[in-house]
Structure to design on (224 residues):
């Protein structure tokens, strides 16, 4: 009578299988997490675009109201803090900022962070070497940059050179896109100096005179 074998896996074989599965998981998990993170980021892109469109609409409206105003004056009044140099402003508590967010219709109120950058009229350092772009008053009311975070844990979206991306143009103090004087160095907007307007900020660490605090900019530049 022929005997049938009921031999199963040996301990060594099980260990080998577990090692192989662990290697496969180690290769696949980062890729899957990347897909999940990208999907989550794209979920909030429509809100980012709505905020940008609303901001541009408000700045365009302000352009008509400010016709004849001295070119070096700030576009929006009532800021909590006006930093020196480029006149970057924290306008989170102004009616102008509230109108932008209401016009955008962002769900659940204002986002964790929303900041835009328009063209600055300040040319104290002279023309940008290598660029022949003519600065006109309309630049000061044109949004060339934006950063948007829906929540404290969501990936940031950035708008520059006419496109949305999750690549931080100021990552780790690099100067691939912006100089240390906030001048756009490449792309269709090259030669434009950026003046920032902080519209929404719910980071409790940086809610006091935010725009002029170096730590705030270090935080933004570290995001990836």
């Amino acid at each position: 009578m022929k005997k049938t074998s009921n031999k199963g896996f040996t301990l060594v074989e099980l260990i080998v299988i577990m090692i192989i599965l662990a290697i496969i998981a180690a290769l696949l998990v980062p890729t899957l997490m990347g897909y999940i993170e990208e999907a989550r980021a794209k979920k909030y892109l429509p809100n980012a675009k709505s905020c940008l469109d609303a901001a541009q609409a408000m700045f365009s409206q302000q352009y008509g109201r400010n016709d004849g105003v001295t070119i070096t004056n700030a576009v929006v009044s009532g800021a909590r803090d006006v930093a020196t140099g480029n006149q970057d402003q924290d306008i989170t508590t102004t009616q102008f900022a509230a109108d932008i967010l209401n016009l955008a219709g962002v769900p659940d109120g204002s986002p964790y962070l929303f900041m835009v950058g328009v063209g600055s009229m300040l040319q104290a350092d002279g023309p940008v070497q290598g660029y022949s772009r003519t600065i006109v008053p309309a630049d000061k009311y044109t949004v060339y940059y934006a950063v948007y975070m829906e929540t404290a844990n969501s990936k940031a979206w950035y708008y520059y050179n006419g496109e949305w991306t999750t690549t931080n143009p100021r990552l780790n103090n690099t100067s691939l896109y912006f100089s240390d004087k906030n001048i756009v160095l490449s792309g269709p907007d090259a030669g434009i100096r950026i003046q920032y307007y902080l519209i929404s900020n719910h980071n409790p660490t940086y809610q006091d005179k935010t725009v002029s605090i170096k730590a705030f900019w270090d935080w933004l530049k570290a995001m990836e």
About this structure: The beta strands are 81-82, 89-90, 113-119, 143-149, 157-160, 163-165, 194-201. The mean pLDDT is 80. DSSP finds three helices and seven strands in the chain.
